[in-house]
């Protein structure tokens, strides 16, 4: 009887558990979370079948381990998992948005990355948080990036890719550094911009709410996500995000200074290059 | 037989014509556009019933005039309309995103704003452009801001409000200055941010497209709109937009400088204040 051990029963982990059970990839999901109330709710709602009292107990007899904990805890948790597994070789994968720091954190603690570990990043999410928002269709049609090392076991890699495909996802393999730089630009920077923008309106919400149309709603949807989760993501990928942020600030300053001087060239350039690039992203699926 | 004269058969004007005809508010729509090809297409597709050879011919015998031209042309066009109407008192309204410059532009040319003129701004739009994208449901459930002056005729104001309601819109009356400052914050600044952000990715679209998920798509939807239209909107509202942009650049610089110095306080503050304000916008309908 195949058993998945899920560590972390937040939105992502809970949605994965529901999706994998529904697909028949595992017969049972045993869950562990540092927050006892979370794991109790996940058990009561049927998101997981059984609660493990601790990590070592959950790892016993399992056929795979999904590490769905916050970014800053992933590397240490993966190391704990491999220590609990001992000599057993079982596929272990995470769901973190930034990959190089996970790999580096494991190397720093263990000297190398265990071959059954497959770093993963599903490009999926919701405005809602926690196990109560679990959605078995969260990964349908979404991309999942896998950033295996050359030493990663082929068996583990194929097994993990198969589980993601069973959830309806499109699996793509990419290097960790390329992945982290790319999602800094396409995901982490927009998140910071949307949040920082809404933050500047905080004092005026009551007056401004009726002037917020569909464009505002779309532009600010991502600002509603968990701020502590996103703090950890942005800190983990700070190097890449800062480079893109500096380039953007530069454009914004040139637009503003141009407008102040009655020169619309920088504004016109940003608008036309933005519309042109958006068209090419749209053609490419973005 | 009631007749609407539509000046400008782009997305907004064409959608208005379809919606008003569908609602039975007017029996006929006569259209004029500086671009002859546009008006030919609008006539062929049935968006308008007849093409006027020029503005004076269209204004003859009409019962209302909708001025749906680009922002920088609104004031001059409204003045031309009133000159063509002569002594006849007919409701005239525009659809511009920035109201004070329209009012000021009319005053500069005529000394005062004719009492049948009702400044309007429907908070609606689409990524698509032009008469071919006309959508009779574009205004259903959307807000339309009217910024009448104290001298504006009550009859014109009520008639125009009634037409917008016939299109399914929610009409709200507000002062022009308050309106322009509010939409700078909720609509014009996000548009500039989304465009400037995508512009910084222009060289990397081919590499980045597969990393663009649902969050990217929502955040950048508004960047796909007509850059020349938005250049005119942002220039018309530059004073208000610049003030909000400066506040935002300040936040972004503090976040970036903090990250470079290993200080996450500014980042954490932007994320938590952003998520909190977004929740209050959501409760208020934004």
Can you tell me about this structure?
The structure is a homodimer of 286-residue chains. Chain A has 286 residues and is α/β, with parallel strands linked by helices. The first copy, chain A, folds into two domains: 3-174, 3-Layer(aba) Sandwich (Rossmann fold); 179-283, Orthogonal Bundle (6-phosphogluconate dehydrogenase C-terminal fold). Chain A is built from twelve helices and nine strands. In chain A, the strands form two sheets. Chain A has a six-stranded parallel β-sheet, with helices on both faces. A three-stranded mixed β-sheet of chain A has the order 7-8-9, with helices on one face. The mean pLDDT of chain A is 96. Chains A and B meet through helix 7, helix 8, helix 9, helix 10 and helix 11 of A and helix 7, helix 8, helix 9, helix 10 and helix 11 of B.
At the fourth CATH level, what is the homologous superfamily of the largest domain in chain A?
Answer: NAD(P)-binding Rossmann-like Domain
Strand content of chain A: 5-15%
Domain count of chain A, please report it. 2
Could you tell me the radius of gyration of chain A in angstroms?
21 Å
Most extensive chain contact? A-B, 92 and 92 residues
Structural class of chain A: alpha/beta
Going across the biggest sheet of chain A, name each strand in turn: 3-2-1-4-5-6
Give the tags:
homodimer, 286 residues, alpha/beta, Rossmann fold, 2 domains, six-stranded parallel β-sheet, 9 strands
Task: Please describe the topology of this protein.
The structure is a homodimer of 286-residue chains.
Chain A: E1 3-7, H1 11-22, E2 28-32, H2 36-44, E3 50-51, H3 55-59, E4 64-67, H4 74-85, E5 92-94, H5 100-110, E6 117-118, E7 120-122, E8 143-146, H6 154-166, E9 170-173, H7 176-200, H8 205-208, H9 214-220, H10 227-236, H11 238-260, H12 265-283
Parallel strand pairs in A: 1-2, 1-4, 2-3, 4-5, 5-6, 8-9
Antiparallel strand pairs in A: 7-8
């Amino acid at each position: 009887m195949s058993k998945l051990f899920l560590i972390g029963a937040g939105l992502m982990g809970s949605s994965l558990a529901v999706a994998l059970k529904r697909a028949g990839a595992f017969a049972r999901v045993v869950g562990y979370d540092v927050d006892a109330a979370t794991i109790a709710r996940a058990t009561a709602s049927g998101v997981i079948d059984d609660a493990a009292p601790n990590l070592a107990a959950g790892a016993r007899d399992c056929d795979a381990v999904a590490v769905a904990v916050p970014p800053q805890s992933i590397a240490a948790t993966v190391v704990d998992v491999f220590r609990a597994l001992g000599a057993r070789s079982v596929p272990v994968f995470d769901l973190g948005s930034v990959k190089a720091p996970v790999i580096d954190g494991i190397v720093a603690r263990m000297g190398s990355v265990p071959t059954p570990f497959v770093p993963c990043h599903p490009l999926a999410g919701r405005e809602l948080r926690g196990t109560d928002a679990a959605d078995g269709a969260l990964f349908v049609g979404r991309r999942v990036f896998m950033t295996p090392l050359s030493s990663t076991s082929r068996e583990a890699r194929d097994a993990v890719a198969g589980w993601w495909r069973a959830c309806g996802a499109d699996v793509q393999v990419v290097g960790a550094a390329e992945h982290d730089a790319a999602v800094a630009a396409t995901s982490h920077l927009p998140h910071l911009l949307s949040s920082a923008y809404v933050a500047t309106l905080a004092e005026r919400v009551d007056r401004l709410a009726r002037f917020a149309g569909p464009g505002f709603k779309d532009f600010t949807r991502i600002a509603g996500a968990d701020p502590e989760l996103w703090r950890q993501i942005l800190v983990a990928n700070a190097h890449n995000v800062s480079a893109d942020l500096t380039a953007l600030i530069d454009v914004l300053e040139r637009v503003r200074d141009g407008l102040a001087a009655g020169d619309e060239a920088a504004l016109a350039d940003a608008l036309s290059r933005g519309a042109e690039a958006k068209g090419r992203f749209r053609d490419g699926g973005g």
